[in-house]
Amino acid sequence: MLSKFGKNQKNFTTIFLSILTLTALSLLTLYSISNIPISLNSPFTRQSIFILFAFVVFLFVKEFKIKSIHDYSSIIYILSYCLCLIPFLFPKIEYTYRWIDFGFFYIQPSEFLKLTTVLVVAKFLSNHHLEVKESRTIIFPTLITFMSCFIVLQQPDLGTAIIIFAPLIPMLLWSGVNTFTVFLMIAPFITIIAASNLVFFYLWAIIMFIIFLTFEVNLLKKTIIYFANIFVGLLTPIFWNSLAEYQKDRILTFLNPDLDPMGSAYHIIQSITAIGSGGFWGKGWQQGSQTQLKFLPVQESDFILSVIAEEFGFVGILILMIVSFKLIKNLLDVAYKISDYFSSLVIIGFTSIFLSHIFINSAMTIGLLPVKGLPFPFISAGGSFLLLCYLMIGVVTSISKN
Amino acid sequence: MLKIENRADIFHYRTLYSILFLCIFVLIARYFQIQVIDFNKHYSKSEVNRVKPRTTYAPRGLILDRNGKILVENFPTYILTVTPYEMKNQQEQFLKISQIINTPVDELEQRFKKYNRGRFLPTIIAKNLSYEEIVTIEEMRLDFPGFQYERFDERIYNSSSNNDHFLGYLREIDREYLKNLDSEKIYRAGELVGWEGLEKQYESDLRYTKGIEYVEVDTYGREINNLSLENKLAYPGKNLNLTIDSELQDFSKELLGNKPGVIITSNVRTGEILSMVSSPSYDLNIFRGETDSNEWKSIISDDKNPILNRSISGLYPGGSQLKIITALNLLEQKKLNPEDELLCSGSYSPPGSSLVFKCWKEEGHGIVNLFSAIAQSCNVYFYETVQLLNLENWVKTAKDFGFNDLTKIDLPNEKRGLIPDSKFFSNTYGRWGWSERGVLLNMTLGQGDILITPIQALKFINIVALSGKDVPTLKLNKDKSTTYYTDLEISSDSWRVLKNGLYDVVNNNYGTGWRAKVEDSSIQSFGKTSTAENSQGEPHAWYIGYFVQNDEIYSLVVLVENGGGGGAIAAPIAGEIIKKIIYSKNYMVSSDVK
Questions:
Q1: pLDDT digits (tens, 9 = 90+) for B96-112
Q2: What is the pLDDT of residue A54?
Q3: Partner of A352 at 20 to 30 A CA spacing, among A162, A308, A385, B40?
């Protein structure tokens, strides 16, 4: 099978070996935290079933033609978007409209929206490749991405919305959109966030100033945009303070539905204690007292890295990180080497999704980011996301073979 | 291959590569910091000090009668739990513990097996520890890593209501049952849950809300520190105020003595149940703590079935009280004039049949009309007149009065009973195995396949008392808002005729219920006796009735299982209860009539 990949063969060997390693580590860990591993409801058994299923899907998807993926991407996007509307027709499940209930398991349709958004943006950018230098060509991809984010935020699910947004900037960069334009896109958001703290805001104003100096753009344009940003930043606290308390609460809960001032601090402390107590070599498989005490919620998914860190130590984490690095790097290599433009953009999009999942999930367990329910690719338990991972790998494989 | 060539820039490749490298580097660095540099700090914390969430409890709500008298309260006991992961040398430890608390090791191990939910969760292994036992364990704390005692409230039934079925009881949750419980309420195996009666019905109100306390403990399970910031307080459950009057309840119980049967009384205008006795019964205190399995078995296997709440789950033939259904049907369909007379010679033969159906009075009632037929419960009158009706209408009227359906009283496990219809007969006896005329003869006497519960009989008489309009749903919880049964469309003329008949049952010299009469001019009493034949022996004695005093209406149902004649056995009991109600003023003031 591998011989078909031609010049990318080496990359694909590494990619598949990485996935195999991650899967093995995942099953080992899930076995450790399952009370009764061989039973229908244990995370271990469920995940094993999901992996088999996802692998079958992978075998199916890798036979697709890149031409048909390209041609049908808009239709697939619309279908997946409609799928995300279905949960709103039913009562909430666990306080959100994220899932469709299939009895034995839930399906999270927004997972597939991540993939289809990348496809549709890649299609647009590759079809308009000559015009990307013009800033207005970026309007459509941005609009599509925001549309996807919007429906996901209604569920509400900030984590997924972030992931859907993540591929946009790398893909724009990859397609040759002016770096300054991309910077202009992100700048206002950073300004608003920075406005919450005066020191940050000064710092940001200085950084922004330096960046504006280095780029060769019309001076008047630069000045106007710069002060527009400062102005937005200054207005933000005034606007925020003019809101009533309940309105602030609403916005905060909208942005972070998991907001739980009582719970999250405790969970991060427990997670760090578990990770730290693992030390260099770890406490050994099934020996992690902290994780086995079930201090952490969703340790088969959101906090699975705490389990790995406690039981397999820093060595385990190092292996995990190196393997993840290898996986992403080789995907990046394929994207660079591949001769087709659309395919290249698609791989960049998928790579961004993988990397953001890896980074956000890991950073959360070690207290670098607030608690967000995002799984680690190929490691965390969970059917929909696993399926998405195999779908993405399947598409990448099919692309490279053509 | 698509038309467009990839023109990816090496600059962009390097940018993304740097971002990837930076991300992974930051993560590895942070893990290195936590796991390698700060290892000692975290490791000692994990070994010596552990933050443990500890569940805190609050009392379950009390159950009070209508006058605030406590019927069910809590009794604090101590339980012993063990966390398997922390325990060292199980057998030796169990042996030591078993000596301290005087419990066989087998029993400890049995409980341990039954309630164990995983190596890291505390498991209840002993209950009802005395203060001395706790002190001993506390003194030897270092010898028992992983063992812990907790306060644990049990139900106690001090009052004379200790055998009232409707109160229900609590039971330990085992692993099997745990799966069926609402996961949001965070139940735990070994805790108590409302299993029967009101305890089950109002579980969510009565049950306390658990709290969580985060405590730092050392390897021996000793608390080092209470991290008060994250604590969640436990709240007690709500008290349940009943409509029951315990004085009347006790009085009814005495009247019934050890005869199997049921007495229920209610305030008709509010639907409040004032007393509800089901006999025989058993002491609810057997559900406190560990139920002795022998004691339990003897209750379960008792022929008289003391576990059964006969008031709502006992099924009986209704007997003559169902003549009311026939009478109303005849009147509503204008099939006869109530003054129309016919002759009861003591027996009845359907036209063209050689079968003979006897009246309960062998020598016959002579000339009877509708009024005197109700009053004297003349079978022959109803045998003849029921032939003017059809089965479908009769069944519909019976169902309108709530038979074959739940009364929706606030108790679990209520039975529906049975009013057989033509479909039922065809299924049971075959399409040609029954005749409409034949079964109507049975139905009008409330015999045959008809089964009703005493609470349905009470609802029935309440509907009659209020002429089918605005009849409140029966209830035991005083604070439950009043709902109403569906109104009946029956003309006031028909009601007047029927009530004249029911009045005569009690007040006329020839009435079958004359023994229920109370010589008091302030009340007007109505009733109907029934003598329900059954296969188990003597007939069941029934009396259903109501009386009006000033603006208040009270109703009652008396049933003595295999007691004999309704007039002879049930009516005198009814008379005593009526006297009790009118001469003690406690429940004259109903709680929600404004």
A1: 888 888 888 888 888 88
A2: 94
A3: A308
Q: Do A173 and B15 touch (CB under 8 A)?
A: yes
Comparing A325-329, A392-396, B164-168, B187-191, the range with the smallest average pLDDT is B187-191
Residue B211 to residue B242: CA distance in whole angstroms:
28
Pairing state between β B192-194 and B170-172: antiparallel
Place domain B246-588 in its CATH homologous superfamily: DD-peptidase/beta-lactamase superfamily (3.40.710.10)
Pairing of strands B223-226, B347-348: unpaired
The minimum CA-CA distance between B16 and chain A, rounded to whole Å, is 7
Query: Is residue B499 classed exposed, middle or buried when 0-12, 13-18 and 19+ CB atoms within 10 A define those classes?
Result: middle
**From CA A383, how far away is CA A47, in angstroms rounded?**
7
Q: List b or e across B502-525, with b for residues whose CB sees 16 or more CB atoms inside 10 angstroms.
A: bbbbbbbeebbbbbbbbeeeebeb
Residue B428, C-beta contacts closer than 8 angstroms, at least 6 positions apart: B420, B449
What DSSP string describes B446-457? T-TT-BB-HHHH
Which residue type, as a one-letter code, is found at position B285?
A: N
- Are B453 and B312 within 8 A, CB to CB? yes
Instruction: Select the residue of A269, A276, A359 nearest B27 (Cβ to Cβ).
Output: A359
Interface of B with A in 99-138 (CB under 8 A): 118-121
**Nearest-angstrom CA–CA distance, A240 and A251:** 10
pLDDT tens readout for residues B153-203: 788 887 788 888 899 888 877 666 666 665 545 666 667 888 889 998 998
- Residue A151 CB burial class (10 angstroms; 0-12, 13-18, ≥19): buried
User: Tokens for B534?
Assistant: 């059954």
- Range A109-113 average pLDDT: 92
**Beta-carbon separation of B16 and A348 below 8 A:** yes
Q: Which CATH class is domain B52-84+93-241?
A: alpha beta
- Region(s) of chain B under CATH 3.90.1310.10: 52-84+93-241
Q: Which residues contact B287 (CB under 8 A, 6 or more apart)?
A: B155, B169, B170, B171
- What integer is the mean pLDDT of B505-530? 90
Asked if this assembly's ipTM is beyond 0.95, the reply is no
Residue of A nearest to B3 (CA): A340
Please work out, in degrees rounded to the nearest 5, the angle formed at the alpha carbon of residue A122 by the alpha carbons of A117 and A125. 125
Query: In which residue ranges of chain B is CATH 3.40.710.10 found?
Result: 246-588
Contact between chains at A332 and B119 (C-beta distance less than 8 A): no
**pTM, to two decimals:** 0.59
pLDDT band, very low/low/confident/very high, at A302 (cuts 50, 70, 90): confident
A35/B16 CB distance under 8 A: no
- Distances, alpha carbon A368 to alpha carbons A263, A264, A294, A364, in Å: 17, 13, 22, 6
CB B573 within 8 A of CB B257: no
Residue A329's CB is within 10 A of a number of other CB atoms, namely 20
- Tell me how far apart the alpha carbons of residues B275 and B581 are, in angstroms, rounded to a whole number: 11
